[in-house]
Amino acid sequence: QVQLVESGGGLVQAGGSLRLSCAASGRTFTRYTMGWFRQAPGKEREFVAAISWSGGSTVYADSVKGRFTISRDNAKNTVYLQMNSLKPEDTAVYYCAADGSKTIATMSRTWDGMDYWGKGTLVTVSS
Fold first, then answer.
1. d(CA 83, CA 117)
2. What would the pLDDT profile of 64-105 be if each residue is shown by its tens digit?
3. Residue 108, SS3?
């Protein structure tokens, strides 16, 4: 069993930065591909970024490429999402997810049946 707890959300002005963290419980963190997703009010959940178990491979949604960076520290059982040049359209609840069988490519295309989800952290970007 893995529990995921997101933190770092908040209110920021457009152009600003935030760093989200997702702390995972359990001793098998390195077994999981990790991802960040977001859901804006009235919209469906969408993929943001994913990182392989080793941290050696990453993939991003086109909407955040060049602005967001996903990373992980396996010694700390934590995955991060550094968000720069934030835009009002980045406003959403951001969720961390873990899956033991999906590749980062698979995770970027489908997130049905993910092994674990966090409860989310709200990011609000004001114009």
1. 20
2. 999 999 999 999 999 999 999 999 999 999 999 999 999 999
3. helix
